[in-house]
Amino acid sequence: MGVIIKDLDILGGTPVFRGTRVPIQTLFDYLEGGERLEEFLEGFPTVSREAAVAALEEAKHLLLARSQMRILIDECIDERFRNSLSGHDSQIARYAGLAGLKNGDLLKAAEAAKFDVLLTVD
């Protein structure tokens, strides 16, 4: 269970620390303003150090996940090209179970499989 919740009954759905009415944004505002984590915790005693650190870890995970793209490589591209895409989740169409699909069908299947990019040379 995460430390961040969104509930329409709590501050209109603003993301808050679980069990509090303290917006997560407040933690970021403190840190962006040059304040230390200890100062945030003193100002908001209902937020535990563990919850604040866990929220920062969740934010870090989301940020890093967004920098990685899911890339589908069409069958018309040499499979070795996948090695050039380190740092991303790249898959060959046949390994992704999309072998033999062409044009719009491949594009629709890639979108349904939540790929961010389709690389093709057709």
Could you please describe the fold and organization of this structure?
The protein is of the alpha/beta class. It folds into 2 domains: 4-66, Arc Repressor Mutant, subunit A; 69-119, no CATH class. It is 37% helix and 12% strand. The chain has a 3-stranded parallel β-sheet, with no helix packed on it. It has a two-stranded antiparallel sheet with strand order 1-2. It is elongated. The mean pLDDT is 90.
Q: In brief, what are we looking at here?
A:
This protein has helices at about 25-30, 35-45, 50-65, 105-110, and strands at about 5, 15, 70-75, 90, 115-120. It has about 120 residues and is an alpha/beta fold.
How many beta-strand runs? 5
Helix-strand pattern: EEHHHEEHE
Q: Helix fraction? A: 25-40%
| Order of strands across the main sheet | 4-3-5
Shape: elongated
Determine the mean pLDDT. 90
CATH superfamily of the largest domain: Winged helix-like DNA-binding domain superfamily/Winged helix DNA-binding domain
What structural class do you assign from the helix and strand content? Answer: alpha/beta
Taking the sheet with the most strands, its summary is: 3 strands, parallel
> What count of structural domains?
2
The number of helical elements comes to: 4
Q: Do you know the CATH topology of the largest domain?
A: Arc Repressor Mutant, subunit A
Question: Span from first to last CA?
Answer: 45 Å
CATH secondary-structure class of the largest domain: Mainly Alpha
Radius of gyration: 21 Å
CATH architecture of the largest domain: Orthogonal Bundle
| Percent of residues in beta strands | 5-15%
Which spans have pLDDT < 50 for at least 5 consecutive residues?
A: none
